[in-house]
Structures
1.
Amino acid sequence: EPEVTQTPSHQVTQMGQEVILRCVPISNHLYFYWYRQILGQKVEFLVSFYNNEISEKSEIFDDQFSVERPDGSNFTLKIRSTKLEDSAMYFCASTRDSNTGELFFGEGSRLTVL
Amino acid sequence: GENVEQHPSTLSVQEGDSAVIKCTYSDSASNYFPWYKQELGKRPQLIIDIRSNVGEKKDQRIAVTLNKTAKHFSLHITETQPEDSAVYFCAAHHTNAGKSTFGDGTTLTVKP
């Protein structure tokens, strides 16, 4: 069964450093998402991406965040200058179309900012 | 934007009992309501969903009901088992916005 894959599974970084989290969505899916989950808290929407552009973003997704689909398969989340409060699990998700709504999540990338 | 409230935040039941988790949403344009189960350290996984043109859906021990007028939906788990212990999240999906907004989660503990 096709799966969303994410790398790295865990990244430790120093405050102020840039981080890139990578995702490979399911191949016939058209909508891509990044969600964030701080330990023990809810799953928070960051950004949705469709047709090579951002379709929606939350207040969390400020100028320090960016997303890109550099080729036909990867979908990346970049945090330019990490802060302590960026420590969280970042989930990539994809869905075939917006009407379907069912999100297929990757296993997540745990980011620890020291 | 959409606001989803979920209750209770924690729920403890004896094995074999039923568990009910309730959610409300604010945006009447939301039209798809999934429920996700998240085990410790794992990703959320869809367990059941319901669309806005349906009032109830059942899959074995799990059922979901939707009241569009009142903007609330509920998850019902019958004959609970210890392996049902997890965090459950409801979500409301808005097609035009193309995103799902999650509730705060309910930690379900099923005691053997």
2.
Amino acid sequence: EPEVTQTPSHQVTQMGQEVILRCVPISNHLYFYWYRQILGQKVEFLVSFYNNEISEKSEIFDDQFSVERPDGSNFTLKIRSTKLEDSAMYFCASNGGLGDTQYFGPGTRLTVL
Amino acid sequence: AQKVTQAQTEISVVEKEDVTLDCVYETRDTTYYLFWYKQPPSGELVFLIRRNSFDEQNEISGRYSWNFQKSTSSFNFTITASQVVDSAVYFCALRTLNNNDMRFGAGTRLTVKP
């Protein structure tokens, strides 16, 4: 069964460093998302991406964040200058069409020291 | 505005007990989708069920059942004869036709003791 994959599973970085989190959505899906879950809290929407551009973003998704689909398979989230409060689990998700179920990847745990 | 409320922060039951997880949602949209996801201790989000706003039929899948009631804006989840492997955090989520982002509730941590 096709699934969303994410790498790395765990990333440790120093405050102020740039990180890139990688996702490979399900191959025939058209809509891609990033969500964040701070430890012990709920899952929060960051951004959605469709047709090679951002379709929606939350107030969390400020100028230090960016997303890209550099080729036909990868979908990346870049955090330009990490802060301590960026420590969280980051989930990628994808779905085939509007209203379809979103399927989540296993997550990348980001730890900012 | 969309909002999902899971009032139960934590529930603890003994194996074989039935347990119901509550979910109340708010939206002004007439077309929307409701979801339940399970997050086991390993951390991934596992899709359990999706319900469309125009389909109020309740659903049963093995030991799991869902009760969707538009009149009370609720989408409750019942586990029958709970097992230790059901221990996880369960999230209810809402998405509308006009917004592709999912709004999650705060989650309910279910602990099933042997």
3.
Amino acid sequence: AQSVTQPDIHITVSEGASLELRCNYSYGATPYLFWYVQSPGQGLQLLLKYFSGDTLVQGIKGFEAEFKRSQSSFNLRKPSVHWSDAAEYFCAVGAHSGNTPLVFGKGTRLSVIA
Amino acid sequence: NAGVTQTPKFRVLKTGQSMTLLCAQDMNHEYMYWYRQDPGMGLRLIHYSVGEGTTAKGEVPDGYNVSRLKKQNFLLGLESAAPSQTSVYFCASSQLRDFEAYGYTFGSGTRLTVV
């Protein structure tokens, strides 16, 4: 069965600093990987996804993520964090076929300080 | 184009009461899902459906029932609510044909409190 581990429960970064959120997955085949963001009291917004091809994927709001098969990782990065990036971030893994439900990590809460 | 609509958005129940959460999608998607979100637990799958008239259990199905009588609707029922079911519930839908391009479409969530 697939699983997702987000090792960091809470991260605090200064505005303007770089950010990396970690995601490790376990999946028996080539995974379909997602990052979602959730602002307080809001729903989930898709940041980016990896299906195949270039292992560095660009998303919205200046985020990017890199798929590393050898490390079973899909870490999210942003070169310069803005105060509005404070939110909770979820990594998810699914099957290419889309015929099995996505499995989500427990999330990483990002705080941004001045 | 409304996407995925969840009704109601907020609800407070007393222990032992019953209620039904409605998820409606207008995209003709085959697959529909119910997740619950709890602090520090991420999203956990309750039940899902791969088509009209079908349902399957997810990771945390106990205390919930579901029905998919119409393709566009996926109902989540709580027969006898318990405080442990206090949570935010998200519905999502997807289509195999364009899953690569779009993944899931999520509703905005239902915040349920059981007192």
